[in-house]
Structures are given as structure tokens and as C-alpha cells.
Fold this sequence. Notes:
The chain is mainly β. The chain is built from no helices and seven strands.
Amino acid sequence: TSTADAAELSLGRPTNNQEYLSATLTTNGSKSVTLELSGPGVSARQIAVEVAGDEQAHNFRIPLHSKSKGYTRVKLLPGNTKGFALKDLAICQLPKT
């Protein structure tokens, strides 16, 4: 992928503050993936996630809390890498305490 390439996900409903994004990510070369969280009526948020870049699958979890309405779109920017794969993507609920 180049620095302009991205994977974009649209969610069926806005997320809530008790949810997080869980996925398995594989990159080859890039050591950072940027997530852009957005949606109508919510301030966009960018999160840089450090990754191994070693062609191995690694699990990651990103909290989806916001100060207002929830997110409906997640954009992943893998950067300049020789390979990028995303699987086992799920929006999960935090356990009740």
C-alpha cells in the first residue's frame, strides 16, 4: 500500500462509550497504522497505533468513546507498506462492572 491507501468501514449505528473495535491486523513494513474515527455530529478523532510490521497477525483493540454522539465510520490508513490485511473485525461491548 502507499501512504494514500486506506480501508474504510461504515457502521450500521453510532457506537457508544462502552464499545471498542477489535481486529486482527497484519502489516509488512509499516510500524504505524492511523485510525480516523468520525460520524455525523461527532468530532473526528485520529489514533496512531504502533504495529510490528513483521508480516504476522496481531490483535488490537481501540476504545470508541467520544464526548458526544458515537462514531459511524472507521478509516484505517496503513501507511507505506508491502502488505496489509485486516480480519476478525468486531465492535465489542465492555463487560459490566
